[in-house]
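Session log. Operator J.P. requested a structure for one protein chain; no other inputs attached. Running the standard single-chain path with C-alpha cell output.
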Amino acid sequence: MERISVIIARDPARVRILVRGSEGDVLKAVLGPLGQAHPRAARTLLEGLSLWHQQPLAVVLRVDDSFDGHALGLCDALGFGERNLHYEIGIAHQRPTRRLCGLADFSDLRELDQGQVLS
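Structure written below.
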C-alpha cells in the first residue's frame, strides 16, 4: 500500500498543502488565509483525504515563530500534534529563511524530513 504524507505550511496570506505518495506529488493546494477558514476545516480535509486513500495519513505541520499550529485545531494544549484513526500530526519547527515567490513553489515543503518532526 502506498504511504501518503501531507505537509501543511501557513504563510500570512495563505495555507499551502502538499500531499505526496510513493510515486511523487498527489495533490498541491494553496488555500486562503487561515482566519477565513472554519475551525474544523483542516481536520475535515485530512479526514477526507484519509478516507479517499483508505489509510491513515502521516502529516507534518510546519510551524515557526509566528504560527504555533493551534489555529488549525491540529495540536493539543501542550502543542503536540493530534493522533487519531485518520491521521498522525508531527510538528516541524522551522524558522522562515526566505519569502516564497509564485504559486507552484513547494520546494521548502519537500525539504522537510522525518528528522525534523517531533511526535
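Operator note: Residues 1-12+38-97 form one domain.
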